[in-house]
Design brief:
This protein is mostly helical and 286 residues long. The protein has 3 domains: 43 residues, Orthogonal Bundle (Arc Repressor Mutant, subunit A); 103 residues, no CATH class; 82 residues, no CATH class. The protein has 15 helices and no strands. 32% of the residues are buried. The structure holds a DNA duplex (21 and 21 nucleotides). InterPro entries: Homeodomain-like_sf, Myb_dom, Plant_SW-associated_TFs, SANT/Myb.
Length: 286
DNA sequence: AAAATGACCAACCGCGCTCCG
DNA sequence: ACGGAGCGCGGTTGGTCATTT
């Protein structure tokens, strides 16, 4: 996808963890202009990163609507089920988990679910032909689940959830006996409603279920509660948000909660992008 | 209390695909 | 039709924090 305006800045790209300042710059830029051509984003946003890194950071961490909490029993079951069907098709699995990224699903699988499935006898692992899955069964890195963990897995011979997180009012950490993260997680819809009190009626009590505790920077999104009001036009704001997965996530998210907001929300997001919104051609911006 | 080990997760890397000129 | 550029995806790595010895 060539981009006419793409230039090739000869800058040495920074690597490693993102600083809050970098996050701020990237978020500011994308909320204001959309990402457009990723390769130009770093230069325009004043970042010494490559476009790929910016894209990843946005998708996996900064994008509004990310849940970033512990997986609910439902989500966990979905991951296990879909992984059995799809294998390591993380992006496809993530499509069914509104607010989750492929990277998050992948990490969750590798750090937690994989062990669980193995412990359960690998009955769900047969469908995955991947090297990763093989390593679960064969590699020396395969770890035995500690007895302590085993004790914490009631009903571990079924696919019943390991008593997880949200629905049980227990997140993964507390499940593991550690501390709760300190801050409430705010979904984009919740955040939107804060900025638009008139939308509040659109959120029913199910929204509470989505208000997990999370320590990450989604809380920062509060800062942007005003960007729509005194910031750029909706047109500017929506550049780059016409992403199918983005809309799809919200759509799914609220459909799951028997809410009608999903469509309305996507309409809202795509109000000036008819034809291109919620579609895949988010590059045709500049 | 300090060192060793384990677990988690953010980020990087490389490959394949698609689009455009 | 072909080559280059950009994007998306999956695998892997490396840093950090927690737990154990």
């Amino acid at each position: 996808m060539g981009c006419k305006t793409c230039e090739k800045p000869k800058v040495s790209h920074r690597k490693g963890l993102w600083s809050p300042d970098e996050d701020q710059k990237l978020r500011d830029y994308i909320l204001k202009h959309g990402h457009g051509c990723w390769s130009t984003v770093p230069a325009k946003a004043g970042l010494q990163r490559n476009g790929k890194s910016c894209r990843l950071r946005w998708i996996n961490y900064l994008r509004p609507g990310l849940k970033r909490g512990f997986f609910s029993a439902e989500e966990e079951a979905t991951v296990i089920k879909l992984h059995a069907i799809l294998g390591n098709k993380w992006s496809q699995i993530a499509m069914h988990l509104p607010g989750r990224t492929d990277n998050e699903v992948k990490n969750y699988w590798n750090s937690y679910l994989k062990k669980k499935v193995v412990k359960l006898g690998g009955s769900n692992s047969h469908a995955s032909p991947t090297k990763s899955q093989d390593s679960v069964n064969q590699s020396p890195e395969t770890r035995q689940i500690p007895e302590e963990e085993n004790k914490q897995i009631p009903g571990s011979d079924s696919l019943e959830p390991l008593e997880p997180p949200m629905q049980s009012s227990m997140d993964h950490d507390s499940f593991k006996g550690t501390l709760l993260p300190p801050f409430p997680k705010v979904l984009f819809a919740d955040w939107l409603s804060m900025d638009h009190p008139t939308n509040q009626s659109l959120l029913n009590s199910d929204a509470e279920m989505n208000c997990q505790w999370d320590s990450n920077s989604n809380a920062d999104l509060f800062k942007y509660g005003s960007f729509q009001a005194d910031g750029p036009s909706s047109s500017d704001f929506l550049h780059g948000f016409g992403d199918s997965s983005f809309c799809g996530e919200f759509q799914l998210q609220f459909e799951h909660g028997d809410q009608l907001l999903g469509g309305a929300f996507c309409n809202y997001l795509s109000m000036d992008e008819n034809g291109g919104s919620c579609g895949t051609n988010h590059d045709a911006i500049y």
